[in-house]
Amino acid sequence: MLKINNLHASVEDKAILKGINLEVKPGEVHAIMGPNGSGKSTLASVIAGKEEYEVEEGEIILNGEDIEELSAEERAHKGVFLSFQYPVEIPGVTVTNFMKTAINETRKAKGLEDMPANEMLKLIREKSELLEIDRKFLSRSLNEGFSGGEKKRNEIFQMAMLEPKLAILDETDSGLDIDALRIVANGVNKLKSKDNATIVITHYQRLLDYIVPDYVHVLYNGRIVKSGTKELAHELEAKGYDWIKEEIGA
Amino acid sequence: MELKEKLVSSFMAFENTIDIDSPVHDIRVDAIKNFEAEGFPTKKQEAWKYTSLNSVLKNDFSVFPKETGALDYKDVKQYFIHDIDSYKIIFIDGKYSSHLSATTHDGIDVCLMSAALNKPKYKLIIDNYFNKIATKDSLSSLNTAFSAEGAYIHIPKNKVVEKPIQIIHFSTGNEAALMLQPRNLIVVGENSHVQIIERHQSLTDNPTLTNSVTEIFANKRAIVDYYKIQNDKQSASLIDNTFINQKQESIAKVHTFSFGGKLTRNNLNFYQNGERIDSTMKGITIIGDKQHVDHNTLVHHIEPNCESHQDYKGIFDANSTGVFNGKVVVEKEAQKTNAFQANNNILVSDKATINTKPQLEIFADDVKCSHGCTIGQLDESAMFYLRSRGIPEKEARGLLMYAFSNNVLDSVAIPEIKSRITKLIAQKLGVNIGFDL
């Protein structure tokens, strides 16, 4: 599914990623943990194609294709989805119309006709039920005045609508109370299949009680310094990150 | 012959066509003297620093069209807000078109300036209102000198006019170049409510210059809701001089949608002569090519406890130029004034220009006045967000620009106008946003 080889990336000449190697196979859930400033969100943005990051070395292979030169929208069309830590407010564009535009642009890129309106409505109904989203919510302006929990739930709703192959959840648990966390995690789990993969980026172990990872990686100072199974996440929760820093001699 | 000389010398010929015994005659004579003394404004004047009329004035405009073209409704239907029942005052090349119009004298007068100026039954209104608030600047004076035709709307007190009134000026290109000077007078009685839509539309590539003057009187507790749709051809230029005199507790709102035309200058002036008055002016400007749109606004707070709200959004592409000059004057007596002004702009192209200049003159000490101007590009993180959802760059830009300008439409009271403007915005920004789902 995803293979990242020796990825180096910088922003404004400041090196942030310093040689990332990561392989994610279909059906897997990978968690990327690490202290603040270790490069977690940068990695998510670089995979999704944010232009302000300069990839200086290495490659990002999605299903056998190097996507490093592709624009963010082209990567989305190939099945990459990023759930944002801070979703952007778009006044005047409703959640429904935004999704309609996103889905039809993706279909257009694949040479398909627009999705018929009744099919779209059915899909919206189905996916909003999955995320326990009220119908009224869908006619509100995208993210405008949404609570932290509503924003994250809306991100996962978009993910459900777009059915990505590779979903990257960037700090999806931040700002969520326990009920919202359960709904969001439940949504993510229901969307899991043997054909798609999920990367969960988080600072805390809490989310991983609900979305159970197959692998856990620790990102520190732009490198993956330790990988393991879900037990590693528990260890990090109990002991913090300092022992890792000592272990790698930082 | 220069346009100025041509206009001054044709004034005599114009006088032969009208009743020189009417009281308006003296007003016209004074006005042409004003214009002759001052001439067209130049960039040397502060109020015209960023807008030059030179390229427009070099045309050899015909000031009295010899004959007017004929139009079929089906050919110009698209310029009407055609999905609502409305009164219509329609002009073709400056002449009234009874064929396209729907006027009334049933309890209200929705008719013609020529009738109001000439018929004795309107004399009292003309004596009381005509040219009472239009300023004596050269362009308004020029219009006053030649004032003969336009819309005349008189709503007596306690009338809610159910149907909006559309005023449309078409030019057909019968003349190689045409100058029009429509003159509108709108008097709204106590407690009355009226909605008006104004548009100037050229139908060919022959140059036109419209120098329009509209005087609006909103009496006590009257509500005036005015929409200006400016989406003209590249050959058409418009100087719109609008003056609104408000009495106590009246509400006046003017929305100006500027999407096209060679040069557009909006001189929009509010005078608050009473307490607890509300004045709102909002605008969306979306232009490209070498288009030029200049909003020159004034709110004169004269008495206490009044409000004014200004919100202008501009999106400038290619070599276009925008000007916003918003002046707010708060007199010493106008305590407890709330005056808000915002002008936010996006420059899409490196070659586009915006000149924005708030001008606050506050002589009272217990007021709330705020103003803010921004000039920026689109937010890159918002762009990334949209693109990461599969929306291509061009559509993402359009969507963000739509979102940027959209809140101006919140105060549009006529749903058909809102949907028309929404579609125009989407069309101007080149996006297909699924509004209909």
From TrEMBL, chain A:
Keywords recorded for this protein, A-Z: ATP-binding, Nucleotide-binding
InterPro entries: AAA+_ATPase (IPR003593), ABC_transporter-like_ATP-bd (IPR003439), FeS-cluster_ATPase_SufC (IPR010230), P-loop_NTPase (IPR027417)
Gene3D superfamilies in the cross-refs: P-loop containing nucleotide triphosphate hydrolases (3.40.50.300)
CDD domains linked: ABC_FeS_Assembly (cd03217)
Source species, domain of life: Bacteria
Ranges where the ABC transporter domain occurs: 2-246
GO molecular function: ATP binding; ATP hydrolysis activity
A Pfam entry, by short name: ABC_tran
Protein family: Belongs to the ABC transporter superfamily. Ycf16 family.
PANTHER family found in the cross-reference section: ABC TRANSPORTER I FAMILY MEMBER 6, CHLOROPLASTIC
The protein's name: Fe-S cluster assembly ATP-binding protein
Automatic annotation (TrEMBL), chain B:
The SUF system FeS cluster assembly SufBD N-terminal domain, residue ranges: 3-167
Top-level taxon in the UniProt lineage: Bacteria
Annotated SUF system FeS cluster assembly SufBD core domain residues: 174-404
Transmembrane segments: none
One annotated GO biological process: iron-sulfur cluster assembly
InterPro entries in the record: Fe-S_cluster_assembly_SufBD, SUF_FeS_clus_asmbl_SufBD_core, SUF_FeS_clus_asmbl_SufBD_sf, SUF_FeS_clus_asmbl_SufD, SufBD_N
NCBIfam families in alphabetical order: sufD (TIGR01981)
Record-linked PANTHER family: PROTEIN ABCI7, CHLOROPLASTIC (PTHR43575:SF1)
Family: Belongs to the iron-sulfur cluster assembly SufBD family.
Protein name, per record: Iron-regulated ABC transporter permease protein SufD
Source organism of the structure: Winogradskyella jejuensis
